[in-house]
Structure formats: C-alpha cells, structure tokens
Design goal:
The complex is a heterotrimer of chains A (396), B (260) and C (386). Chain A is built from 10 helices and 22 strands. Chain A has 396 residues and is of the alpha/beta class. In chain A, helix 5 crosses helix 6 and helix 7 packs parallel to helix 10. The longest helix of chain A has 17 residues. The model of chain A has no long low-confidence stretch (mean pLDDT 90). Helices cover 29% and strands 30% of the residues of chain B. With 386 residues, chain C is of the alpha+beta class. Chain C has 3 domains: 113 residues, Acyl-CoA dehydrogenase/oxidase, N-terminal domain (Butyryl-Coa Dehydrogenase, subunit A, domain 1, Orthogonal Bundle), CATH 1.10.540; 108 residues, Butyryl-CoA Dehydrogenase, subunit A, domain 2, CATH 2.40.110.10; 150 residues, Butyryl-CoA Dehydrogenase, subunit A, domain 3 (Up-down Bundle), CATH 1.20.140.10. A 4-stranded mixed sheet of chain C has the order 1-4-5-8. A 4-stranded antiparallel sheet of chain C has the order 2-3-7-6, covered by helices on one side. In chain C, strand 9 and strand 10 form a beta hairpin. Chain C is globular. The termini of chain C are far apart. In chain C, 52% of the residues are buried. Classes of the chains: A alpha/beta (396), B alpha/beta (260), C alpha+beta (386). The interface between A and B is large, with 110 and 92 residues. Strand 22 of chain A pairs parallel with strand 15 of chain B.
Chain lengths: 396, 260, 386
C-alpha cells in the first residue's frame, strides 16, 4: 500500500512540505508528520522538499511498455453526418503535441461522412485519417464507438488520444479508456509535452473551477484526454495539404450495440446557437423574472447574438437549460459576452471567462463579475440595457 | 426491480478555495454534501421502486464520514446502504474507483445501477461509464427520463446537445442521470428517524474481492502532480455616468475594438 | 447556533422545517403574498416531509410530539412566510380539540388524515358579532333526531374553504349562557355548509380566511365533540394549548425580520461606511435580538410546561402569545426602519413581515384579552394563597 514516507535522517522540520500540501495533511513536530487520513498521495510535498526528505514509497504500477506506443490521435466526432467544430480545435492542439514529439497526427473518424469531410481533416492538420467508413457507425452508440476505438488503439498503439468533451465524447471515451485499462483526464484546458519524460502534461479545473490540477499518466498508454468545445482555437485551414486516408474495417462484434435507437427528437434553439455565437447576452438573477428576458433577447437580436443565462435564472424556470452558461451548462468563448444581472459566481465564470471581451452590468459594486469584466457598469440593468438598445438602434 | 444507486460525498465546491498564504486547499469546516447530481439519481431510484416495486440500495466509496451521505439517502426512502471504505482505496483515480465500486455492486446484486452525471469536485463524469465497462453491462449517459421498464428492457431518453434520443437496452444496465430528470424529494421525519438508527455495513477491499493492485494509487493510471489556483483575468474599466452616457461610452469602445 | 436544549428529534424537526422554509417557501413567498394564493404545493411538501405528524399521537399516525415540536416547526416556517406558517399551525388548531376531547371513534377517523397532511383542519368560533366576547355567538345547533342542525355564520376562519375538517362551536342552549355551547366536527361538502368570499387582508395573504355559512346543516350526533354544554371549555382549553404556537409564529416572523435587517445593515453603505457601524442602528439591532431571545425563551417554556402535563397553563400560554406578538410588531417595524426607503418597497421582504406581524396581536384572542386572562390568573393565585 502506498504512502508518503518521511526520511527522518534528512528532515530538518523546515516546513516547506507543509506549505506545499494542498490538503493540509502535514504538520511539523520537530519533523514532518503526515496525517494519513487527509493525505491523498498527490506527491506535491515530495517535489517541494528541498532536502529530498520525503518520498512516495515505490508504487509498483503495472502499466504498459510505453516505448511501444507512438503517435497522437484525435477523435473527430461527427453528428448526423457533419464533423463537429471541436474536432478542428483538437487537431490544433494535436498538431502541436505531435510536432513536439516528432510524431504523426492521426484523425479518427467513424461513419460514412464522405471524402470531402475526410479531406478537410487533413487540411486542418491531420497527417493521416483512420476512417471506419461503416453505416453502422453513423449513429453514435457507446458499445460500437468504444469498441471500435479500443480495437484501433490496441492494434496501432498511439501514445495519446484526444476527444471532444461533448455529450458523445464524455459518454463513450471513458468506456474506451476502461476497456484499454488506461488513464483518462477530462476537460483539459491545457495540454503540453514534457519532452524529457515524453509525457502528456494535462491541466484541468477541479472543485468547480476553484482550483487547477496538473495530471500525468506516467505508466499507461494511450494517454487519453478530453477537451471542451471552444476552450481551444480551431486549427487553421491549409487547402490542398496532403495526407493519408486509411479505411478501417471494424470487427463484427464491435459493430453491434446493446442499445438501440428508437427515435431522435430534435430541440432547436430559437435563436443563434449558443456554442457557436460570436456575441452572447446573458441574463441572471438580477432580471427578477422570466418576462424580463425579453430585454435580453432584444439586445441580443440587435447585436446578432445569442441569449445565455446563469444557473440561477435557469433553476428559477425563467429560461430553458439549453441557454445555461457555466460549470454545469455550456462553456462559451465568444468575442463579446454581456452579463446582465449576473453576480459572477465561480461556477458561472468557469463557463465564460475565456470570452474576448466581457461586459458586466450589475447593481452591486462588489459583484465578483466585475473582477473579470473588461468593461463594468454599476447600475440598474433595467435602465442601462434599454439605454444600450436605444443607442444601438441609433447606430443604424 | 433491484436498484443500486452510487453516490459520493463532496465538499460544497462554492466554498473551496486555496488560501493564498499557505497555498493549501481550505477545507476546514466546509460541509460535506451529497453530490447534487446523485440526489437526482436517488430520487429516480425511489420513483422506479414506487412504479415497479423492488428495493433501492445506496452505495458510496469514501472515508468514514461518507456515511452521512448514505444516511441522507436512507432518510429520503432508500432501503439499504453500504459504505465501501478502506485505506487501500486512497488515491484512487476514476479507473480504480469505478473498478472498486463495480466489485461492490456485483456483491450487492442489481438489475439497474443509477449514477449521477458527474461529481462536482472531480467533474469528470467518468465513473459511471467506466463502471458499466467493468460490470460488462450496457449503459446510457445523460438520461433525462426513464420512459418505461418492461420485458427485461429499459427505455430512456438521452439528453444530447441538439435534442434527445430515445434508446432501449436490456437489463441489467447502468444509467447516469441529469438534473432534468426529476425534482428530488426532501427527507421525511420518519425517514430521518429510521436513517438515524440504521446499521450501515462497512466493506473493505477484501470484502468485495477486489484485486489490490487495481485500486488505490497502484490501480490509478492518472496521477495529480500539482494543484494551484487558476490565473484570474484582471478586471478592466468601470464605466461611470447616467445610463445614456454609459451606453454611449460602451458602444463607442466596442466599436473601436471592432467587437461590434 | 445557540443551544436551546432540544432533543435530537426536536432538532430534526426544526432543521427539516428550516430546510423547507429556505428552499421551498422563501422563493415563492412574495408571489403567494402578491397573488393571495393558497400554498397547496407547500402543504404537499410539508405532508410528504411528515411535518403534519408532529403533534399527533403515534397510534393515530403521528410522531407523538407535543406543543414544543409544533412550535419549532411553526417558528421555522414563519421565518420565511407567516401566511404559510399559519396555514400549517391553523390545521393543528383545528385538530387539537379532537385530540383533547374526541372519543376513540372520532380520533381514529379524523386524526390520521390530519397527520398525513391529506386533509387540513380549521377551528371556527368567531362570528361577526362575537369576537372577544365569544359567549355572544349566535350560531345555533338545534337538537333533532340523530343529531343537530346548525344555523349561522362564522367569520375570519383560517383555512376556511380549503380545510376538510372543521371544529365549530355553536349554541345548543341559549338559556344556559356560558354553559350553553357545544363543539361539533363538521366536514366540508355536507349539505347546508357553505363558504363566503375569501377575505382580502393586510397580511398573511397566502392564508385563506373565509366566512363559514351554515344553513340547516345536519351534523350527526357522533360528531358532537365532548358533551353538550362543553363548547367554551373545548375552545378555551384548545387555545391554552395553541397560543404558544402563535407565540412561535411571532418569534419566527421577528427572527426573519432581524436576519434581513442585519444583513442589509452590513451591506448598505452611507457616509462612507456600512450603517451597521452606526451606534443608532447597532442599538436597534441589539434590542431586536434581545426581545426575540426573551420571547423565544417564554414560548419554549410555555410549550414545555404544557407538554409536561401541567394543567394550569392558561396564564403562561397567554403570556407567551402576548409578549411574542408585541415583540414581532416592534421588531418588524424596526426592521423596516433599518431598511429605510427600501424597507417600504414591495421588492424587499420586510414590509410584508410588518404587515404579517400585526395579526398576531389580534387573533386567537386579542392581546387585550390576553392581559385580562393573565390578570385574572394572578388574582386567582392571590385568592388561593389566602
């Protein structure tokens, strides 16, 4: 069983480890004493100790022979025959990782999406496309998607696979990871290569975005990670770029699904799709009631933008969940985000703080949203928003 | 129908911060709550029991205080609770956790396993799907409604980004649920009194027959190496004046920046 | 939280009532007040949570608690909304006479649905010409074959029209004066039992207040509560038990107002500082808090005394109601004052609390009658010592 060991001959009780421990699990009584109840074996103290007096007792992890795994893969999700934008964002990140490793970048795509779409993946940076061009993979099912991806990974042994943290990705990718017996890190906001150790350094938020964690998958392959839509920028397009297209015939058992689709019910959002909008106007608790979203809609429409909402407004039933921005809603990063009557709790900020320009309108000068707003207006939104609308109308 | 609901006790994340002086996670005095998504899972289990009969058993993996979360579930009306707790489980990532939980679920016996979509501390949403893989059962994530259970099959609605899909799969199966599925009930007084007196067995790694090399730090392919506070964007400019003035200024600035 | 020496069960009741108040009542209280809407959804939630069971004995589906348990729940609900709280407590008021004076059949028939929250109860004594002068009621109950026929009107009945079970005090023999009234259990829907319009009130607007109209309403003899002539005794003994509940409602209203005022004072800046740093405000807050603590102590004591089986409870019960309701009126008025202009605006919660508080000084016996009772008891005690 693993634990952190204090090497008593080396420990001077300097307390550097106490400062480094995120969980308050160390105290100094002449020397460092680890509280095993609180210790999570994260190893931060081991790194922080200037005298090497702490060690994480050798953990024998039965992993894979990592040297046999090469290449960076990106799962290019398609839905109803169309490749999702997140695929191009992943190709952007994947290209960088592949270059750092000196390896090839492969896009993996399922379903009969057509040659043009496949070529697009190459234009966006893929050196190779692994294409399981089968009708039975057109519709997403966890059994088939996880089965085929695992099959491919077992045969080809990539060292990294990236996938979008979408409804599809967050569902089948963990199943694939469990099939492969490897590690998966969700919702990465940062991906880098540690060239010395040839490892993928994964950074992600935890505790609702209150803290960030850096994660490694040292002994297992492939290193799998998901990234949310709009967290990274799309790969630029290089028309005419050359690459290899390899068709893949999955094994019959991986083309069978235990779940069957009975029907798909589309729920179209009334205005511009939130995820792709360049401008978003959001309303929060400060609106006071559902009817006041009319004001938000008016402003959004004038700007050609979409309507967003904080969790408070959605929970109060003023607007459907599809408009919710935040930790448990959508992550957005538009050019302009206007937050009206939203206090800016961390759970909301996590969903929109990467927007280029943030405008906040709130009665409360202490509202946390003002700490991240590019432009802050302390005032009554019922006066400011109409004034904005008037001013924009006059623009012509 | 025998239902097992897997829940987690989490810190109230709105309260979790890093102390800027000591760089430690300030966890003192932060209440532990039942992961909000798991409340919907418990409620759905209870509703299915009311509709189809059977039992609802609640399972959690955690330190001894996670028992409180189980008692809350019992107070809502769950029939039995089990705490999976063992020092050997410390440091488990999602693969190790899902493996351990699936061994406990196997020991409990089940027709349906219900999990909340994700835990608000880890936010990975991985444990449910990974458990399904370990158990070897079909699963559907993001269930917003259980339409029907009949002839050994379950029909559910899966919430997608563009609408929802109606899917059917054979039991035994696993589902993860989203908030849209129901409104969790409050505990009742009789429930709370029953929960207070309930005996909750504690299972260890040995009790569930788990392979020790597949749990805890040893069984965790992923490793947290560093924890830090995120860089916050710096605040910008506060615009002052009457609404009309402020509106003017803002539009000017946004036009100048080429944003609108 | 200060220690009021409650048992674990009492704390459970209080905490659950508080959770419901915070999560379910607070978000809708303004709307319920604005629309004067009966809180059926909250009633359903309270029922599912087993809160209607607290005062009913176990053999009738209750949890076997007493006055203190009922007061704890009422106080917590009142912190969020007095209208919701009086709906809850009003049902206990209607059920208490059955608990105290009912025979086995009556208890077995009427207490379980009240305990489960399936049905609500109401207590009907007051009439247009008989308020404080309860003996002046003119609703008659004429003895007929198999039962009684009721004629008359009752006024300002809490839960009137929504409740299904009513305890009605009517005159069976006018010649006997104070011994001429009897108590009856009457069910909604019986022939000859109707309701007047819903009253529009200053406060507790979520609570339904209606006239009850009896026109040759036949009540079977099995529904006579206690014996003929015991009507006023039923009423008085019932009020002795339930007055601390009004005290609890008052304490809750006052506490809710103090909580709001304290938070506001801390956040409102004038002259460059939070107004909570000004001594004038601090003294007001201190007085408010002290009065509430004193009222709470008196209410809990009265409840505990009743629950101990003590027979002589009229004085303490009246004191609890009197003191706490006066505190509620003072504290809510001060709360509005602390909020200043904002306190007067409907958008902020304290003006409602002030409107709600007023009735506590009036119903279940006006505070003037409470003083009469207390003085009467004092003199009785003096006389008995001689």
């Amino acid at each position: 069983m693993a634990r952190i060991k204090v090497i008593e001959e080396k420990c001077t009780g300097c307390g550097a480890c106490v400062d480094a421990c995120p969980f308050g699990a160390i105290r100094v009584e002449e020397m460092a004493v680890i509280d095993e109840e609180k210790c999570t074996l994260c190893g931060a103290c081991v790194e922080a100790c200037p005298l090497g007096a702490l060690e994480l007792e050798e953990v024998v992890r039965t992993g894979m022979d990592t040297s046999k795994y090469r290449g960076v893969w990106v799962f290019a999700e398609q839905r109803h025959g169309k490749v999702s934008g997140v695929a191009y964002e992943l190709l952007n990140a994947g290209r960088r990782l592949a270059d750092d490793l000196g390896e090839k970048l492969t896009a993996v795509v399922f379903g009969p999406i057509g040659e043009d779409a496949v070529r697009e993946l190459i234009y966006r940076g893929a050196d190779r496309v692994l294409w399981a061009d089968d009708e039975r993979l057109a519709q997403f099912h966890d059994d088939t998607y996880a089965g085929v991806l695992a099959e491919m990974a077992q045969a080809e042994r990539p060292e990294i696979i990236l996938c979008g943290a979408t409804s599809i990705g967050r569902s089948f990718f963990p199943k694939a990871a469990a099939k492969l017996g490897t590690g998966l890190t969700a919702d990465c906001t940062g991906l880098e290569i540690d060239k010395e150790r040839r490892l993928l350094v994964q950074t992600r938020p935890a505790f609702g975005g209150n803290i960030m964690a850096t994660i490694l998958t040292p002994d297992h392959r492939p290193q799998m990670a998901t990234v949310r839509h709009k967290v990274m920028k799309e790969a630029p397009r290089q028309e005419g770029r050359e690459g290899e297209v390899v068709k893949w015939s999955p094994r019959p058992e991986n083309l069978a699904s235990r779940t069957t689709l009975v029907e798909f019910v589309e729920e179209v959002e009334e205005t511009v799709n939130l995820a792709d909008a360049d401008i978003i106007v959001s309303g929060g608790r400060g609106l006071g009631g559902p009817e006041n979203f009319a004001l938000i809609r008016e402003l959004a429409m004038l700007l050609g933008g979409a309507v967003g909402a904080s969790r408070a407004a959605v929970d109060a039933g003023w607007i459907p969940y599809s408009h919710q921005v935040g930790q448990t809603g959508r992550t957005v990063s538009p050019k302009l985000y206007i937050a009206c009557g939203i206090s800016g709790a961390i759970q909301h900020l996590v969903g929109m703080q990467s927007s280029d320009v943030i405008v906040a309108i709130n009665k409360d000068p202490e509202a946390p949203i003002f700490k991240v707003a590019t432009f802050g207006i302390v005032g009554d939104l019922f006066e400011v928003v109409p004034a904005l609308i008037e001013r924009l109308k006059r623009r012509g | 129908m025998d239902i097992v609901v897997c829940i987690k006790q989490v810190p109230e994340t709105t309260e979790v911060k890093i102390d800027p002086q000591t760089k430690t996670l300030v966890r003192e005095g932060i209440p532990g709550i039942v992961n909000p998504f798991d409340m919907y899972a418990i409620e759905e289990g209870l509703r299915l029991k009311e509709r189809y009969g059977g039992k609802v058993k609640v399972l959690t993996m955690g330190p001894p205080q996670a028992e409180d979360a189980l008692r809350e579930a019992l107070a809502m009306g769950a029939d039995e609770a089990v705490l999976l707790s063992d020092k050997a489980l410390a440091g488990s990532d999602t693969l190790a956790t899902s493996y351990a939980l699936s061994m406990a679920v196997r020991k409990l016996g089940y027709d349906l396993v219900i999990c909340g979509k994700q835990a608000i501390d880890g936010d990975t949403a991985q444990v449910g799907p990974e458990m399904a893989e370990h158990l070897g059962v079909p699963f559907v994530a993001w269930v917003r409604k259980v339409e029907e259970v009949s002839d050994g099959k379950i029909k559910v609605q899966r919430l997608m980004d563009d609408g929802y899909e109606v899917l059917e799969m054979p039991l035994p199966a696993l589902i993860t649920v989203v908030k849209e599925i129901n409104e969790p009930r409050l505990p009742s007084l009789r429930g709370k009194m029953r929960a207070r007196k309930a005996q909750i067995p504690v299972w260890t790694v040995e009790d569930i027959g788990a392979d020790p090399s597949r749990v805890g730090l040893e069984g965790s392919p992923t490793q947290v190496v560093r924890v830090f506070t995120p860089e916050r964007r710096a605040g910008g400019e506060i615009l002052q004046g009457e609404p009309e003035e402020v509106a003017d200024k803002l539009v000017e600035k946004l036009e100048a920046m080429g944003v609108i | 939280m200060p220690n009021y020496f409650l048992t674990e069960e009492q704390m459970m009741i209080r905490d659950l009532a508080r959770q419901i108040a915070e999560e379910k009542v607070k978000p809708v209280r303004a709307e319920l007040d604005e629309k004067e809407e009966f809180p059926w959804e909250i009633v359903r939630i309270l029922a599912q949570a087993d809160l209607f069971r607290v005062w009913v004995p176990e053999e009738y589906g209750g949890l076997g608690g007493g006055t203190l348990e009922l007061c704890l729940a009422t106080e917590e609900l009142s912190r969020a909304c007095a209208g919701v709280a009086v709906t809850y407590a009003g049902s206990a008021l209607g059920g208490t006479p059955i608990l105290l004076f009912g025979n086995e059949e009556q208890k077995r028939k009427y207490l379980p649905p009240l305990a489960s929250g399936e049905k609500l109860a109401a207590f009907a004594l007051t009439e247009p010409d008989a308020g404080s002068d309860a003996a002046a009621i003119s609703t008659t109950a004429k003895k007929v074959d198999g039962g009684y026929v009721l004629n008359g009107t009752k006024q300002w009945i809490t839960n009137g029209g929504e409740a299904e079970i009513y305890v009605v005090i009517a005159m069976t023999d006018k010649t006997k004066g104070a011994r001429g009234a009897s108590a009856f259990i009457v069910e909604k829907g019986w022939e000859g039992f109707g309701f007047g319009k819903k009253e529009r009130k200053m406060g507790i607007r979520a609570s339904a207040t209606r006239e009850l109209i009896f026109q040759d309403c036949f009540v079977p003899k099995e529904n006579l509560l206690g014996r003929e002539g015991m009507g006023f005794i039923v009423a008085m003994r019932t009020f002795d038990r339930t007055r601390p509940g009004i005290g609890a409602q008052s304490v809750g209203i006052a506490q809710g107002a103090l909580d709001e005022a304290l938070a506001y004072a801390h956040q409102r800046h004038q002259f460059g500082r939070p107004i909570s740093s000004f001594q004038a405000i601090q003294h007001m807050l201190a007085d408010m808090a002290t009065q509430i603590e004193a009222a709470r102590a008196l209410v809990y004591y009265a409840a505990r005394l009743i629950d101990s089986g003590e027979k002589d409870i009229s004085k303490i019960s009246a004191m609890a109601k009197l003191f706490a309701s006066d505190v509620a009126m003072r504290v809510t008025t001060d709360a509005v004052q602390i909020f200043g202009g904002y306190g007067y605006m409907r958008e902020y919660p304290v003006e409602k609390m002030m409107r709600d508080a007023k009735i506590t000084q009036i119903y279940e016996g006006t505070n003037q009658i409470m003083r009469n009772i207390i003085a009467g008891e004092l003199i009785k005690e003096l006389a008995s010592r001689r």
